[in-house]
Backbone:
């Protein structure tokens, strides 16, 4: 949890992305790979 929060601070731009990606790790990971 603290690690995710640290990333949230270090990356303020994609903060919204990590915000919705946290509750949906599986779906978030899939979408993340699709974006790449």
Residues:
């Amino acid at each position: 949890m603290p690690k995710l929060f640290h990333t949230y601070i270090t990356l303020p731009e994609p903060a919204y992305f990590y915000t919705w990606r946290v509750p949906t790790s599986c779906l978030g990971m899939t979408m993340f790979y699709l974006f790449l």
Summary: The chain has a mean pLDDT of 60.
